Amino acid sequence: MSPPCCVTMQLFYMAAIINNISRPLCRAAFFPLSFLTCRALSRQSSIPSSCSIPLSLFCARKYTSESTLYRYKGKLHEEMAAKDLPLFTELTAPNGIKWTQPLGLFINNEFVKSKAGGTLSSVSPIDDKEITSVYAAESADVDEAVKAARAAFQSSEWADITTAERGALLYKLADLLEKNLEVLATLDTWDMGKPLSATKNEDLSESISTLRYYAGWADKISGKTIDVGPSKLVYVLHQPIGVCGQIVPWNYPLMMAAWKLGPALATGNTVVLKSAEQSPLSVLFLGTLIKEAGFPPGVVNILSGYGKTAGAAIAAHEDIDKIAFTGSTLTGRAIMKAASSNLKNITIETGGKSPLLIFEDADIEQAVKWAHIGIMSNAGQVCCATSRILVQESVYEEFVQKFVEYTKTTSVIGDPFSENVSHGPQVSRQQYERIMAYVEKGKAEGANLVLGGTTPGGNFIQPTVFKDVKDEFTICKEEIFGPFVCIDKFTTQAEAIKRANNSSYGLGAAVFTKDNTRAHVVANKIEAGMVWINSSNDSHFAVPFGGVKQSGIGRECGEYALANYTNAKAVHVNLGTVL
């Protein structure tokens, strides 16, 4: 592997430090930094000092090259400290579910120790207690995984199997996820705090369905012929790209892995997948199912590790052909720079500040319910969360009053293993502190806090609602990634569209109206990769998911994702032209 230029890596590490390469659909753990420290970091990374620094940078992880200590989920650990871990351990979750948990790196269908023996701790945000430690990959481990993936890509055991056989392997993997649903759902709940009802009924259900969807596509990916005249036959092949580096976020660990693995494997690629350091356990367990399903060695390799080491090595690796990343916009930019070392194909899904527009003729009761889903699901830790609500002036006060009352009764905060709980903790103490800093910022800027902004304890945050906000407020511009929504009024359709588009992001948007013409006109004019009409965050694995502007490049899900994992090869056949 040829090392990338020092400037590229310096920028890359800066981004990984500030917003962690494994964010989340999309955020990492954070640690408060002073304004002067942020400015110093920006100078060291050749970022102009005149650049505005978002509040998120004031809450970035503390890391200095002089120290081998960093703060992670409220605890100090020696960075990449060597521990004599076993490769497997027996775990019992708070809900009584027991299983054998792999702790090693999954390379070439085997769990192995990291070469340097480095580890990372998985800490539950429910109580800030360590669940277990797992081996953490560094650049040497990434090299081994890439070698395994390259060998598998070139081997007849994978390259020469039929497309139907590839599909059968994906069907088998989906069946194994279904068989192990209780364990996998428990893992994601324990590891990142999402209510068990959501991990079981939403995340696992979608993961299984996604794999089956792409299993069905495996033998339907065909080329085409192009008529250019009688003297030549031209046909186009859609061939796999090669070795794919995939980096998944902490907020939907298993589901995001399924979104990425499904199209990559259906099209014949091999994969090196890095889990988020905040929630590595379910993705590691997936490795056992990959092997059990019968995938040849090296086709899927799974690494736990930190963004600044394993993530950086994947992004810059010269023998990786494609990068698929879900995470922060800042880190996405850094990945693009690192990926330019060999002009990798890239798919990047990054941040959002999605608007939700409510016109005066809308069904207000339905708008209230969907708006709640759009921002409060997963404790607001969703990249396409509709966190900016714009309501037509004549129904503004009615909507705010009903939304606040509905949120008070619907968001049930508590132990995510409890059956009736819908709102778990933020993923870490650092993320909690980051969100609470935005609460104070909103108050200072003059927004009207009408609900929440407080905590019942631990890493839990009450749903927070600000009204009477202005577009220039920090809380209206920056992605907060929590149960935090800004509401304001508009008068005309033109104003609503202009304000909806007044963002550097363009991931999702929602429109509520009974006027079909208005709905489609507004949807067409909003600058976003996805628009929901009379719903919010109502996504589906068969429909393309992704954004415009600084919300990403390319699409995941649906048929559109398949194009991201294939190269089109044109073959020209001379049928008689003689020179």
Keywords:
single chain; 579 residues; alpha/beta; Aldehyde Dehydrogenase, Chain A, domain 1; Aldehyde Dehydrogenase, Chain A, domain 2; 38% helix; globular; Ald_DH_N; oxidoreductase; Ald_DH_CS_GLU
Characterization of this structure:
One of its GO terms (biological process) is polyamine catabolic process. Its EC number is 1.2.1.3. It comes from Sphaerosporella brunnea. Mean pLDDT is 89; it is low at 1-79. The chain has 579 residues and is of the alpha/beta class. The longest helix is centred in the middle third of the chain and has 22 residues, at 196-217. It has two domains: 1-350 and 551-579, Aldehyde Dehydrogenase, Chain A, domain 1, CATH 3.40.605.10; 355-540, Aldehyde Dehydrogenase, Chain A, domain 2 (3-Layer(aba) Sandwich), CATH 3.40.309.10. The radius of gyration is 24 Å and the shape is globular. Helix 6 packs antiparallel against helix 8 and helix 7 (181-192) crosses helix 8. The protein contains 19 helices and 26 strands. The chain has a seven-stranded mixed beta sheet with strand order 18-19-20-17-16-22-23, with helices on both faces. The chain has a six-stranded mixed beta sheet with strand order 13-12-11-14-15-25, sandwiched between helices.
Short structural summary:
With 579 residues, this protein is of the alpha/beta class.
